[in-house]
Amino acid sequence: MYKVAVEEFESTGWAYYFQKEVFFQTRNYVYKYVNEVWLPLHSLYEDTEEQEIVTAFELFWQTSTEQDKDLHTYLSLDKSPLDDVHQIELGYLTGVLLEQEQLNYVAVDYQGENDNHLVLGTLTSSSPSKSVPFCAYNKVIPYKNNFIVRGDYEDASLCCFDDNLNKVWQIPLKYSGSALRGLPCFPERYENVIYINMPENAWYQRKPTPMDIGAFSADTGEALWHDTLPCCARNADLHGSEVYIASDYFLQIRDVTTGEIIWDMQPFWQEDEIPCHLYPLNEQDLLVNFQFKNKVLIINRIDKTIKQTITLPEKSNYCFSTTSLPVKLSETRWVWEVEFTDFTHNTRNSGVVFIDLDENQPNEIEAVIKPRPSHKLKGKTVGNGEKEYFLDMKHHDLDEVIRYCIIIIKNLAHDKGRIGLPNKPDRKHNGKVHVTIDKRALITDKNDDEINESLYAIKAITEHALQKLNITAGNKINNFEIDIQLI
């Protein structure tokens, strides 16, 4: 059996695992998991009009712009950058290193909508040495001395290039321009086989269209097999040599080399439960989560029985992520994400899930969410009859004070404020939130000025996020305004 623990973060986030270390990237920070504590490595909230390029969590070059704080693009690295590595001047969607010692790379360079290039270069130079126009999805699959990408729009195809950007083979694909949310459309490789999902429209997957899936030879591009899944297939993910398919009509596993069905399970779920992912935890246990539901099931692959039901507390309004799959940390541990059930407001906050194999767990369990630090949040009517809110926080960890203050204030704004057109009764508050931090409880070597400088992130991140989401105060007039006092 398994146990699940959840820790909240201040916005939507993405979990990564690199060189046996766990990272979590939110819209504001990159965190690293160290001794069961999440340490912020880099902040993405500073205001700047220039493009910012930083080295993020030892995994990739990360770029963000003031015009679009949600744009995060990267060039993957297999080790920490060297001292002589220059900052890359282009906004790469993705890339791979061709030779570790020389740090030569090939990458997808985003130059505007429908205007991508494949570029070749070395990380010791700030500019690529060669560039060819090709509108590709943001994943590069290395294979022998070549690399394989999926083209989009006018370049809709599966295409193989050599290490000098010459085309080796190209296979046209029927669909292009598909958006991505929980349904990976990137090519995946198993040995000399390339597998790919080819949905007509993957956006949000509320009402999926029929989806083509198939496999191709990585050497020649020859089609090995092809099939069309029914309109209610949510995901068809490659894990090792097998394709795991989740749909309204069945759960299914196929051999990636032949397309042959080697395991299936007919519907046993409720009418309002939509299977989103089928994921192998190990050779025996399969995990199934349901779209916008707060539970997952552990199924015995051999006898097809439900071994365990794991739920998230309903009051948390969380569901297990439909945009990603668990990341395997070891044979007994996985890390995953949870998101807010109403995904249109999932910038409110999200969380990290740790799934641990523990034979002592019961057949039905509720995940444990880490308690928020000790705090008080109350409203007080001021002179003009409007209400202002007061948040008092007492906690030893400065980083957690910042993170949880942002979570609490953003939740308050979602609950009490107005989003877009006024569709709530009049709420007589002016959007002012006064935050008081107890200095005596903090365990830190920073002085008061340094603490206050760190606490400014609460104001900067929260006000920026609420303005971007068009969340205003209940009086229909003011934006939310936050002031912070260290006492």
Q: How would you explain this protein's 3D organization?
A:
The structure is a single chain. A hairpin with a 5-residue loop joins strand 35 (375-381) and strand 36. Strands 1, 29, 30, 31, 32 and 34 form a 6-stranded mixed sheet that branches. Strands 25-26-27-28-33 form a 5-stranded mixed sheet, with no helix packed on it. The chain has a 4-stranded antiparallel sheet with strand order 2-3-4-5, with no helix packed on it. It is built from 2 helices and 40 strands. It has a domain at 375-486. It has 487 residues and is mostly beta strands. 8% of the residues lie in helices and 48% in strands.
Concise structural overview:
This protein has 487 residues and is mainly β.
SSE layout and pairing:
Layout: E1 2-9, E2 13-18, E3 21-26, E4 29-34, E5 37-43, E6 52-56, E7 60-65, E8 68-76, E9 92-99, E10 104-110, E11 116-122, E12 130-133, E13 141-143, E14 146-151, E15 157-162, E16 167-172, E17 188-190, E18 193-199, E19 211-217, E20 223-229, E21 233-239, E22 242-247, E23 251-255, E24 261-265, E25 275-280, E26 285-290, E27 295-300, E28 306-311, E29 318-320, E30 327-330, E31 333-340, E32 350-357, E33 364-366, E34 368-369, E35 375-381, E36 387-393, H1 398-416, E37 418-419, E38 429-437, H2 448-468, E39 471-472, E40 481-486
Parallel strand pairs: 1-34, 28-33, 36-38, 38-40
Antiparallel strand pairs: 1-32, 2-3, 3-4, 4-5, 6-7, 7-8, 9-10, 10-11, 11-12, 13-14, 14-15, 15-16, 17-18, 18-19, 19-20, 21-22, 22-23, 23-24, 25-26, 26-27, 27-28, 29-31, 30-31, 31-32, 35-36, 37-39
Helix pairs in contact: 1-2
